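Re: weekly structure request thread

Next one in the queue (374 aa):
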Amino acid sequence: MKRREPKKRKKLFQRPEGHAPATELAIPLPASGHTAPVRVTTMRYCTESLIERDLTSPSELAGLRQPGTTLWINVDGVGEPHWLQSIGETFGLHTLALEDAVHVHQRAKVEEYGDHLFIVVRMVAASDRLSTEQVSLFLGPDFVITVQELPGGDCLDSVRQRLRTNSGRLRRGGADYLVYALIDAVIDSYFPVLERYGEDLDALDATADGSSPEVLDRLHVIRQELLQMRRAAWPHRDALNELLRYETNLIAEGTRVFFRDCYDHSIQIIDVLETQREMCADMRDLVLTMVGQRTNDIMRVLTIMSTIFIPLSFIAGVYGMNFDTQQSPYNMPELAWKYGYLFSLGIMALTAGGLLVFFYRKGWLRRQKTSNGH
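Done, posted below.
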């Protein structure tokens, strides 16, 4: 079995020990530890129009908010904290929330800061290995700001496309409905990953005969990744439940119904995760049991062979004693018998045959079939 390299643990707390929390907008945000360049895009829309822009400088933030429109600012990456600093100063965001957006070890949660809400969700992606990414959302009266941990692809393209094509009620809804659409896209991104794990488990279940160590290795990897997904998905249930209970004017009563749908999806994801984790554990136990059963079968065959040859060795040892038949008629007279050799072979054959019949009647020679027919 190939030795697995120890996995590097992700550093959770990136803020230096003893660092004072930022309490004023004038205090610079601490570095996030990421070095990738940041991309900032905006979408300002109403029912009749949509304007998209890529921002190159924080000075372009001024004047983005227009009456009668909803503004969505998306920040890809947290490697340049001055962007979030400028966004926070322009839109009056609390610095503690901005600091949580920079320190990307947060679990899913909802916090209220007067005239805006701060929401954290975790997005999943699976290529060769599973990875999770923090997405921070700021909900204001007419704006939504999303901060993604890493630049690159995300699961929010469907929301962008719906805004561009003016499909559904997204452009007719307010900022709260946009937040629902974004959270719903993040929550729904778990289902394709879970579907892939389900297919992997079904394939392993069909071939899990314990003959290959790769089966156990794959089950171990799937179990670890399911545990990672569980840690990311479980807090969504509490966060969405808390969001539904908030008494705030930022979320219209008609939008709460849609947040309940997100809450139901989060519960469904947790149920599927628990089921797949139990399947993974059961399959691992099954494989280990089958390996043990195969070892027992081998040991049983070897034991039976040893048991058969023990009396045969005894008989051969008796007739191998060097007694002189000339000295006494009782000193193995069959050694001088014409059929003495055939007689000894016959005793050995009858002994071996008798033992085989005895073992067969005891059921020790018949292999017990498992439930899958192996």
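The chain has eight helices and seven strands. The helical segments are 81-91, 95-102, 157-165, 175-188, 190-207, 213-245, 253-318, 340-362.
Next request, please.
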